[in-house]
Specification:
Elements lengths: L25 E2 L2 E2 L5 H18 L3 H11 L4 H16 L1 H11 L10 H16 L6 H15 L4 H18 L15
Helix pairs in contact: 1-2, 1-3, 1-5, 3-5, 4-5, 5-6, 5-7, 6-7
């Protein structure tokens, strides 16, 4: 029998069952820009994955996911920016994945790994002015650990490392994809 006078680990009626989210880090009075970026990357990855696998419209998926789990506006904005960038540069990103992971055709990669690579590559190649390359790689590896298979983190780290290494070998010139098939 439960003694009503004894404390329990269960929340009292009407109390939230989930812990409150950690507050955003602030610098002075402004919210630190990286505070919601992990959440943004997760949101962008979930949206890319559903879009890739179920062929749902990306904007609808993003809107639905934002409605299901409210997020900080900064996270939603950055997720939208990542999603738009990956979709806009998808051919380029897939060509680079193909060049750097020659043993694994892009279409045959696990959908989650393919989209983690696309997201990480987009940040490495197109967001390096605001996101340090090492941070972009580390975040992609963390996503692979959370969502990918047993060797996904090593695979993602290896592919992104080869891309960054090739940029350094070229005097930090941008990585350019190979010839594109006009029919794809």
């Amino acid at each position: 029998m439960i003694d009503p006078n004894q404390p329990t680990d269960l929340p009292a009626e009407g109390e939230p069952t989930e812990p409150a989210p950690a507050p955003l880090r602030t610098v002075g009075r402004r919210v630190h820009p990286s505070a919601g970026r992990r959440a943004a990357r997760v949101l962008a990855l979930e949206t890319l994955f559903e879009t890739d696998v179920a062929h749902h419209h990306p904007a609808e998926v993003l809107s639905r996911r934002c409605a299901e789990v409210p997020r900080e506006e900064l996270a939603t904005e950055y997720a939208r920016e990542l999603l738009d960038g990956v979709l806009q540069h998808r051919r380029e990103l897939d060509d680079i994945i193909h060049q750097r992971a020659t043993a694994y055709p892009v279409a045959q990669l696990a959908a989650i790994d393919r989209n983690i690579l696309r997201l990480g590559l987009f940040e490495v190649l197109h967001k390096h002015a605001t996101v340090p390359v090492s941070v972009a790689i580390n975040e992609a590896v963390e996503l692979a650990k959370l969502y990918g298979g047993e060797s996904a983190a090593r695979f993602v780290n290896g592919v992104l490392g080869r891309v960054v290494g090739s940029r350094a070998d070229d005097g930090d010139a941008p990585v350019t994809p190979g010839p594109q098939d006009p029919n794809s």
